[in-house]
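Handout, section B. The chain below has 453 residues.
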Amino acid sequence: MPAPEQRRIIFKHIDESGYSNDLACYLKHGGYEVLKQAVTRPPQALIDEVKRSGLRGRGGAGFPCGVKWGLVDRRSGKPIYLIVNADESEPGTFKDRYLIHQDPHQLIEGTMISCFANNVTQAYIYIRGEFPHGARILGKAIAEARAANFVGPNILGTGYSCEIHIHRGAGAYICGEETGLIESLEGKRAYPRIKPPYFPAVLGLYQCPTIVNNVETLCHVKHIAEIGGEAFARIGTANNTGTRIFCVSGHVQRPGCYEFPTGTITMGQLLNEVCGGPLPGRKFKAVIPGGSSAKVLRFGERFKGRRKVGADLVDFDWGVEDLPMDFDSLALIGTMGGSGGVIVMDDSVNMVEALANINAFYAHESCGQCTPCREGSLWMKKLTTRMVHGPARAEDAALLKDVADQIPGRTICAFGEACAWPTQSFLAKFGDEFKNHHETKQVPKPTATAALV
């Protein structure tokens, strides 16, 4: 079957000729009309629409947005905060930065609708430190929206007031984890909190109920408020509603961001038809479907089992090319949709070297709070560095697996799984490359630089 057409909802005006990121252009294209209608509705009605929509978080875990909002402690008497997670630190993911650069008012409008629905009067956009230009764009957009009375006191004469603040991070991957982000926003070291009791919906920012949503997720809220939850739920597939932005990078002819109804396009259609296939003379070897922490898939392997379709259980027999690109299908075969970062590797890639690169990243980004993660990520980095640069040992692959297996489930946050899953899956899918790698890496090869030293 040919690939379906893109359905650009979030990306509707991005890259459109003559479209700019200022308020005048956004208003010309119907901007803030949804907010004007939303603030006349009962807040609970907006929450119910989001629940009916089935919208799942687009930042990684895929947790239902409406359920998250429903968990907020509204009886405590404390203020409720909303935090926009614009940290986007997962390697292979670049959609949120693109949204911020090209269409910041869409994010602001979605944020303000979400704030009104949840009785939030103070919202924060936590933006990654490496996005200085994005922070400047957002600052200008918020100032424009405030001057037009879409942000700030007595919004649109309704008596409802809400302010948005920008907080720039310092460039730490761990701040993508919501409780680590909250600690950083409070001015502390970004150590993730123990859950329970520190669920953000109950004890979040300043120990108050807090909602943390991803940039793409909040942009979707605007469109749910416009068309209704039931109409949104008809886009995509059951339990995987709406559209999804896929960030495709690596060894394809047309890398970039693409928006499709969730679950309607397969991996093969995305990579071969939409992205133009492999580079000339190459073949696809591996793909990571949801950012670098998702488990890698090997082209040529098959997955068999049963899955639920409506009320029925049906058999499936998929190759990597056949995989529907939705949360549930990818979870069913042992990986995840994550942040939508699709990283493609062709047959020119040495998988040991690829894993060494990933392990170096995670060892650098571990916050160090939990011993299994702090020590385990560093040991994995040292092992794969030795395997790449020598002198490697025959037992290194087995030792690498043993270290990785000791980390998951033994840490406060999911970083333990994030750093262990690549190693576990690379070894499981490409074990022969790791077992045989020592034969060519017994002795470090001298370099010109080393000779000079």
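Note. The chain has three domains: 23-234, 240-346, 351-440. Compare this with the example in section A.
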